[in-house]
Each structure stands twice: as C-alpha cells, then as structure tokens.
Amino acid sequence: ISGASVEETLVDEVIVSVLRMVVHKPALYTCQATNQHSGGANTVKATAKIT
Questions:
Q1: What pLDDT does 45 receive?
Q2: How far is CA 42 from CA 29, 32, 34, in A?
C-alpha cells in the first residue's frame, strides 16, 4: 500500500467514512472498521485487481 486517505461526508445526521488506498499487487485484504459512536466493529474482505 503506497497511500491511503479517509473521506468523511455528513449525510443527514450520519457521518459516512470511506477509506481509499492504493495497492500495487493483487491480494486479499482485510479491513476492520470500528464505529466510534456505537462501539460496534465490522470486518469486510475485498480483492484488489491491478488493471
């Protein structure tokens, strides 16, 4: 990963945070997100494809 940023947007009364990152090789990446406001945590898996 060479760079990453978080974009936050306010939608009604909800803050939506989107993580964007740049990867240079295909792999299975795991992202764990924690909700600061409710204390919940979610894990998602995504595959990066180099084009």
A1: 65
A2: 14, 6, 7
